[in-house]
Design brief:
By secondary structure, this protein is of the alpha+beta class. Among the domains are: about 60 residues, Hormone Receptor, Insulin-like Growth Factor Receptor 1, Chain A domain 2 (Ribbon); about 40 residues, no CATH class; about 50 residues, TSP-1 type 1 repeat (Single Sheet), CATH 2.20.100. Helices cover about 25% and strands about 35% of the residues. It contains 1 helix and 17 strands. The strands form 8 sheets. A 3-stranded antiparallel beta sheet has the order 1-2-3, with no helix packed on it. A two-stranded antiparallel ribbon has the order 4-5. It has a two-stranded antiparallel sheet with strand order 6-7. A hairpin with a 2-residue loop joins strand 10 and strand 11. The longest helix is centred in the last third of the chain and has 60 residues. The N and C termini lie far apart (about 180 Å). Interacts with the extracellular domain of FZD8 and LRP6. It however does not form a ternary complex with FZD8 and LRP6. Interacts with WNT1. Binds heparin. Interacts with LGR4, LGR5 and LGR6. GO terms for molecular function: heparin binding; signaling receptor binding. This is R-spondin-3. InterPro entries: Furin_repeat, Growth_fac_rcpt_cys_sf, R-spondin, Rspo_Fu-CRD_dom, TSP1_rpt, TSP1_rpt_sf, TSP1_spondin_dom. It is found in: Secreted.
């Protein structure tokens, strides 16, 4: 072993030196050179940092740099994320997406163009005019549909979701709202009148029953006095002694 090489290293190093840091790594760790000013220091990591990809060999595992426009990559020729200003497409970082694709600024990828899709039309509505379905001959009817797929930035815009057309119906009279309201008012008054009549009858019945009860109570109070007076008069009557 070289005099500058130490066996008692820290941070995952298998061998190291005071000047160059790690020279080799423990199993499964990746060796990568980090630049500090004009100096490069070897370090051992469990995974490669951003801008690097890992390669495994029988004697050593290394982190190699991605292309300049890649933020992360699987291999040098296959990017998984691009740096700002580039769009990812099939492992490559492009400044402009190919024809038939559009740039997605949210994912920073080239994606397929999505066109708008609408559902089938609904049946035509009943013929109406000013919100009514009676009292006219010519009116309008409408039909609607829903948007089932909204378009992407470069996709075809959505069509109209409603249509209207003229319609002709057999004229029919509308029930007058005032007449109907008058009938409802008369029914309500009649109902209130009947209820008032029943209430008055019940009140009269209660009053008559109360009067009868009071009369009976008065009779019960006066009858003992009448019997006493009758008995007294009978005792004072003259006795016939002619016989």
């Amino acid at each position: 072993v070289h005099p500058n090489v130490s066996q008692g290293c820290q941070g995952g190093c298998a061998t190291c030196s005071d000047y160059n840091g790690c020279l080799s790594c423990k199993p499964r760790l990746f060796f990568v050179l980090e630049r500090i000013g004009m100096k490069q220091i070897g370090v051992c990591l469990s995974s490669c940092p951003s801008g690097y990809y890992g390669t495994r060999y029988p004697d050593i595992n290394k982190c190699a740099k991605c292309k300049a426009d890649c933020d992360t990559c699987f291999t040098r020729n296959f990017c998984t994320k691009c740096k700002s200003g580039f769009y990812l497409y099939s492992g490559k970082c492009l400044e402009k997406c190919p024809d038939g694709l559009e740039a997605n600024n949210h994912t920073m990828e080239c994606t397929s163009i999505v066109h708008c899709e609408a559902s089938e039309w609904s049946p035509w509505s009943p013929c109406t005019k000013k919100g009514k379905t009676c009292g006219f001959k010519r009116g309008n009817e409408v039909r609607v549909r829903e948007i089932v797929q909204h378009p992407s930035a470069r996709g075809n815009p959505c069509p109209a979701t409603s249509e209207s057309r003229k319609c002709i119906v057999q004229r029919k009279r509308c029930q007058k709202e005032g007449k109907g309201k008058k009938n409802r008012e008369e029914k309500r008054k009649k109902s209130n009148k009947d209820e008032s009549k029943e209430t008055r009858q019940e009140s009269k019945g209660r009053a008559a029953r109360r009067q009868n009860r009071e009369q009976r109570e008065n009779n019960n109070k006066t009858q003992p006095k009448k019997r006493k007076v009758a008995n007294k008069e009978q005792n004072l009557a003259p006795v016939d002694t002619a016989h």
